[in-house]
Design brief:
Structural class: alpha+beta
Radius of gyration: 57 Å
CATH topology of the largest domain: Immunoglobulin-like
Number of helices: 3
Length: about 450
């Protein structure tokens, strides 16, 4: 404990004499050869009365050792000079206590510890307790891939890829395999450094599990003449309920009663399936018959089975599989043919019934037609008998009303033609008959039969 206190006291003593100036800047910064480094910097003095912003103020950067009296070559930059050793440019407004500096055309030899100094005569001060460690590398740093949100199916998450941007004037170009031509943003961090970033929101599914995200950062160097690239990958680990659950039977096809069969249930899930359950379909619904992905039993009769795979996120049911006994299979194979034959018989019976019904109906209609025609001829005769008038004769050929005779009948009718006379009494007022005789009263009917 005493040793620790002594060490701390020694560290404080090393910078106590120069506590009149303090800077706010990152303690460590990394840069890329051939590129630049923007150093965000602000300063404050111990006593405000000592610093006068109206006076000419110069900024100085010292490397390695704050005591530059004996090592003037450690003063690598002074804003009062034009022939500085290192390619630096003080871009901040010193009157506003802004000491931001742009360090250009970097090489690995520029890696060192740097101290900032203010010359506002008569005030002179070096920030001895706030050194800045700068490291210049040949290879760019890898981008960072970050995912915000819970990696579960159906959850929406934000995925971003970011790269440090030590030189905001030449930011890196980011690309990744999540989207083409992403929108690139350059953001300022709380310490006033910069970060280049791309971002995408996605809704996760089981297909994203195991997906490898690759993000590349391309840094322009040597005033854009060359490019240095870095890359980062990460693999998504998405949790999801069981998928592609299936059941299989071995041996396949029909089996003999008394033989052994094996039922196997398979599924994919993350986390893995914690429980497999086998069900047999009964008249009362599914009945649990076994636990585990493998179910082996001695066959006594056929049946329908399915399995259910379960993990902490849910479950999924497989399609049904049918276990058939060999004797039962023959009956089942005949069932479709029995149904087809039965259907044909039903159609034939229906067709015969329809034909019989139509035939009966047609015969009935013909009988009714003949019955209706006979009174049509006889009724006028009865009606005329009640009328008063003279007797007329008419010739009527009934052969046109009879069914079409055979050829023998035609010959007989040609040879035998008798004339029948009918007595018709017509009233004087009846005008519906056409008078063909010399006198209306001299009509007669000749009947050919």
């Amino acid at each position: 404990m005493l040793l620790s206190v002594f060490f701390l006291s020694g560290a404080l003593a090393d910078c106590v004499p120069n506590l009149n100036l303090f800077i706010t800047a990152p303690q460590e910064m990394e840069a890329l050869t051939g590129s630049c480094l923007q150093i965000p910097c602000n300063f404050r003095v111990k006593s405000e009365e000592q610093f006068n912003s109206t006076r000419t103020t110069f900024g100085v950067w010292i490397k390695n050792d704050r005591y530059f009296g004996k090592k003037p070559y450690n003063v690598i930059f002074n804003s009062s000079r034009k022939d500085n050793i290192y390619p630096m440019n003080l871009t901040g407004d010193l009157s506003q206590k802004n000491c931001t500096t742009l360090f250009s055309s970097l090489i690995t030899n520029y890696s060192d510890k740097y101290y900032f100094r203010i010359e506002n005569r008569p005030f002179l001060g070096t920030a001895s307790c706030d050194p800045l460690q700068i490291t210049v590398r040949d290879s760019p740093p890898s981008p960072r891939i970050e995912i915000s949100g819970d990696l579960k199916e159906k959850e929406s998450v934000s995925i971003s890829c970011s790269a440090s941007t030590p030189c905001p004037h030449s930011p890196p170009k980011l690309t990744w395999n999540l989207q083409q031509d992403p929108h690139i943003m350059t953001e300022e961090n709380t310490d006033r450094t910069f970060t280049t970033k791309i971002q995408k929101n996605i809704t996760l599914s089981d297909e994203h599990d195991g997906f490898i995200i690759t993000c590349s950062a391309r840094y322009p160097v040597n005033e854009g003449k060359d490019v240095k690239t870095s890359e980062e990958t990460t693999t998504l680990n998405v949790s999801y309920a069981p998928k592609d659950t299936s059941a299989s039977i071995s041996p396949p096809g029909s089996v003999s009663a008394g033989s052994w069969v094996n039922l196997t249930c398979s599924s994919r899930a993350n986390p893995p399936v914690s429980r497999f359950t086998w069900f047999r379909i009964s008249k009362d619904g599914p009945v649990t018959v076994s636990e585990g992905d493998f179910y082996s039993f001695n066959v006594t009769d056929g049946g329908v089975y399915h399995c259910v795979a379960t993990n902490v996120l849910g479950n999924q049911t497989s399609s049904e599989i049918r276990l058939t006994i060999k004797g039962e299979q023959q009956l089942e194979s005949l069932s479709p043919w029995i149904a087809v034959v039965g259907g044909i018989i039903v159609l034939i019976c229906a067709s015969v019934a329809i034909w019989w019904f139509k035939s009966k109906r047609s015969t009935s209609q013909q009988t009714q037609s003949l019955t209706a025609e006979e009174p049509a001829v006889q009724q006028p005769a009865r009606a005329t008998e009640t009328e008063t008038g003279d007797i007329h004769y008419g010739e009527i050929n009934f052969s046109n009303w009879r069914p079409e005779p055979s050829s023998a009948s035609v010959q007989d009718s040609g040879q035998q033609e008798d004339t029948l006379y009918a007595q018709v009494k017509v009233s004087k007022t009846v005008k519906s008959f056409t008078q063909t005789a010399d006198s209306p009263e001299d009509l007669y009917a000749q009947v050919l039969k």
